[in-house]
Design brief:
6-stranded antiparallel beta sheet; two-stranded antiparallel ribbon
Length: 333
């Protein structure tokens, strides 16, 4: 169960419970009504939200478990606080917490129908545990499911439907935020939901995960975003390496074409070497070979490690006896 806010996540023994107290630790009517407005289906559809994971095409699947309109939920909050202040409440501090927002995810492994049953049962448990008059609103959201990168497993994970509950922290007639957010209270409520899940769905509500100990919800989101950024960077590097290999491959292909052309010409000249030639023809032939070898050397300059293999290839077609000493000496150098 997550109490949304700036304080840290509390990890009870063998229980992963994310408690965040800033967005869920609500001090007055303005903050409470903003959260109710965010959850109400009609208000949700006609407004633009900072949460980009909201898919309005799925908003019709959301559940309003208290069956109150936005105005009715606001009136319930206002009237309940007024009633407490006029009777038994002794907490008159200006910074008092008048409402808490809980975020309760559906346990893993349930079908959508089981998730709906879980949320209905959870709302009933909250009403019995905290008192129906103190439940301002309960809303199950199915329109925020999205994929995210788990920062620990590095696997792409789909978020689950979750319940938002807004509760006035009344305890023995007074507003008592300290009691509401205490370890004992949260532990008790988690156990109630865990028992429900085991008995009805044969799954656990509480997990033994300790990978996210002492992290706020915003920090968990940041970890996920950092993991995504890291994978994007790795992908960028892979693309860069692929393009580099591709460019080198093209360069080798061009170089090979140059070698191939030179070797063909050398082969043709080598076939003519055995024929008697005039001194002038021999000189022209030697010059041609010299030019071809010079061109081959120019092609090979970018890859010095290839010279030895190139030497062997050309040597199979042209020997020192078939060229001028000057030409082959240049090639050797």
């Amino acid at each position: 169960i997550i109490l949304q806010g700036k304080y840290k996540v509390h990890l009870f023994k063998n229980i992963y419970t994310s408690i965040n107290f800033s967005g869920g630790k609500l001090h007055g009517a303005t903050e409470v009504k903003a959260m109710l407005r965010h959850c109400d289906e009609e208000e949700r559809l006609k407004r633009t939200h900072k949460n980009k994971q909201i898919d309005k095409t799925l908003t019709h699947k959301n559940m309003n478990l208290t069956k109150l309109t936005y105005k009715q939920a606001c009136d319930r909050y206002t009237n309940r606080i007024k009633q407490l202040d006029e009777t038994t409440n002794t907490n008159r501090r200006k910074d008092r917490v008048t409402c808490f927002g809980l975020s309760i995810p559906a346990p893993a492994g349930l079908s959508e129908e089981q998730e709906r049953d879980f949320f209905r049962s959870t709302c009933s448990i909250l009403q019995d545990y905290y008192g129906g008059k103190n439940i301002v609103g309960c809303y199950a959201h199915f329109d925020e499911k999205h994929q995210y990168l788990d920062s620990v497993t590095k696997e792409l994970t789909t978020s689950r439907a979750h319940l938002h509950a807004y509760i006035i922290p009344e305890y023995h007639g007074s507003l008592n935020g300290k009691w509401f957010s205490s370890r004992k209270n949260m532990n008790t409520l988690n156990k109630k939901l865990d028992e429900l899940c085991k008995e009805r769905y044969n799954v656990k509500f509480m997990t033994n995960s300790k990978d996210y100990k002492d992290l706020s919800v915003e920090e968990l989101k940041q970890l996920s975003n950092e993991a995504v950024t890291q994978q994007k960077q790795q992908l960028k590097e892979l693309h860069k390496e692929r393009n580099k290999v591709k460019a080198e491959s093209e360069a080798y292909r061009t170089l090979a074409e140059g070698y191939k052309e030179n070797i063909i010409q050398l082969s043709e000249i080598a076939e003519q070497v055995s024929n008697p030639l005039s001194d002038m023809a021999k000189t022209q032939q030697a010059q041609m070979i010299n030019d071809i070898l010079t061109n081959t050397l120019e092609l090979a300059k970018s890859k010095p490690d290839r010279l030895k293999s190139i030497h062997k290839v050309i040597e199979s077609f042209v020997t020192p006896e078939r060229t001028t000493n000057r030409a082959f000496g240049e090639f050797e150098r």
